[in-house]
Design brief:
Length: 499
């Protein structure tokens, strides 16, 4: 009986294990069959999601995304002071001048962007300039920061660490509304850097001194003696300016004008010593004037003004001299030791005193100015005496007045020609000698399309959404089957029992 029960029990256990295995195989098979039977739904759901994602990305790329690309270039500076954040004049260097309206306006004119209904501000607001910090400086900052976590005193060292970039990354964001293609955007940046380099040379070079000091004058507005003096003054300014350049760079010769600074000085001296001197001799020999009464009145007024100014400067010089004499400079004594340890004597020396030096400087400057005023008074006084004391034949006066008129025109042309030659020579001098390496473009403009860089994230989003859609479709199918699953299982079980 026990043996029969044991056999029965074993048989029952065997049947139960068989039912579990069959249940697993049936479950996996059912899932596969269910997914296979609903594959059309899964594929359609996934494809629809994929297409909708593509459409959404396309709308974003075409309508929502503002930029069609960007242009980058690297500009580098190399001159005294740039490593301290100073410009060639010793003032704070401002890199934002690169996108100043005066620079961008020239780019607009060169590329005719005004004709495309663009404004200077449209370009300027899309230009970004960032300083480039070398890796070693960054590593040093990070190291000090890390050390400061343990030692707070290291923060002082970080505060003292000051770096002024010498290279800057220039980025131009090419917005779609600008209507520029890649080549045009590249040209904008290249022209910008070119015009800025010209602006840099014009600003920090000193060739503009000539254009300011020797501007174009209407000599018809001046009387003959005034014209002669003005022209001589202009020649003196140019000669002095070029002579300074000759001292600094005596061997420089312009490839454009084929002139050295010494050549220019020589030709200017010829104009001064020959042409202007000859014109002066005619003017003062024949008392040439366009309006005698006006000229006499003008010279008398100038004499009075110089006398007043001379009196002021003489008083200032006397007061400064008196202050210098009354001011006792601080004295310092040095005790000179003797051989036996006793004092051998004392040596007195003046301590440097800034106030004393200022008083002395004011005295000297005021005295020099007073002397110059005295010479001007003597000059105009002699002219007045000559005009009042000399009678000139009217026929000769008219003859030489016409000759002087023609000489004024001739000398004016010569001066303008040499001012132009001087400007070109000086400009080349600054470009090739002074600022040859001051501004460089180590990395020219390079266009980068935003489609390639910006499509990565949207493309990744499409892939993720597609995968999620496929997974969601599978889950929906299985959930739907799970709801009706118990009835199907019961039916299947009933059929097995009946069998």
């Amino acid at each position: 009986m026990e043996k029969l029960e044991l056999e029965k029990k074993d048989t029952i256990n065997l049947v139960i294990k068989q039912e579990e295995d069959n249940g697993e195989r049936i479950s996996l098979k059912n899932i596969f069959n269910i997914l296979l039977s609903c594959k059309r739904f899964i594929v359609m759901f996934t494809c629809v999601t994929f297409i909708l994602s593509i459409l959404a990305v396309s709308v974003y790329m075409l309508f929502i995304q503002q930029s069609s690309g960007s242009v980058q270039a690297l500009i580098s500076f190399n001159f005294d002071g740039i490593d301290k954040g100073l410009d060639p004049h010793g003032k704070t260097f401002d890199i934002d001048k690169l996108k100043a309206p005066v620079v961008v306006d020239k780019v607009m004119d060169t590329m005719n962007l005004y004709g495309r209904k663009l404004t200077t501000e449209d370009i300027r607001k899309n230009i970004d300039i960032q300083g480039v910090i070398p890796d070693d400086v960054i590593n040093k900052i990070l190291t000090i920061n890390k050390m400061a976590e343990k030692d707070v005193t290291k923060l002082e060292e970080l505060n003292e660490l000051e770096y002024h970039p010498t290279q800057f990354m220039v980025t131009f964001k090419n917005e779609k509304k600008l209507g520029l293609d890649g080549d045009e955007a590249n040209k904008v940046v290249n022209e910008l850097l070119k015009e800025y380099k010209n602006y840099f040379i014009e600003t920090y070079g000193d060739k503009n001194v000539l254009s300011i000091a020797v501007g174009e004058l209407n000599y018809d507005e001046y009387d003959y003696p005034e014209v002669a003096r003005i022209m001589k003054g202009q020649i003196d300014i140019i000669t002095s300016y070029i002579s300074d350049k000759k001292k600094v760079s005596p061997d420089f010769r312009s490839k454009t004008t084929q002139m050295s600074f010494g050549d220019i000085v020589s030709y200017l001296n010829i104009i001064n010593d020959v042409d202007i001197s000859r014109m002066n001799s005619l003017i003062y020999s024949y008392n040439l004037t366009k309006d005698k009464d006006r000229l006499l009145s003008l010279y008398q007024y100038r004499i009075e003004q110089y006398q007043l100014e001379m009196g002021k400067k003489q008083d200032e010089a006397q007061m400064a001299q008196a202050a210098v004499k009354a001011y006792q400079k601080d004295k310092n004594l040095i005790m000179m030791p003797g051989s036996n340890g006793e004092t051998a004597g004392t040596t007195e020396f003046d301590q440097k005193n800034e106030y004393y030096d200022q008083l002395l400087g004011r005295s000297v400057d005021a005295g020099v100015t007073a002397s110059e005023d005295a010479r001007e008074i003597e000059y105009y006084t002699k002219i007045l005496e000559k005009i009042n004391g000399t009678v000139v034949d009217e026929i000769l006066r008219q003859k030489y007045s016409k000759e002087v008129d023609s000489m004024v025109v001739s000398i004016s042309k010569k001066m303008n020609n040499w001012v132009d030659i001087t400007n070109k020579t000086v400009e080349e001098y600054f470009e090739t000698e002074v600022f040859n390496n001051a501004v460089k473009i180590p990395v020219p403009a390079q266009y980068k399309s935003s489609f390639i860089s910006n499509v990565k994230i949207p493309a990744l989003a499409v892939i993720v959404l597609t995968i999620l859609a496929a997974f969601t479709a599978v889950v929906l199918v299985l959930l739907k089957n799970a709801v009706s699953g118990p009835d199907n299982n019961k039916t299947a079980t009933g059929e097995q029992q009946a069998g």
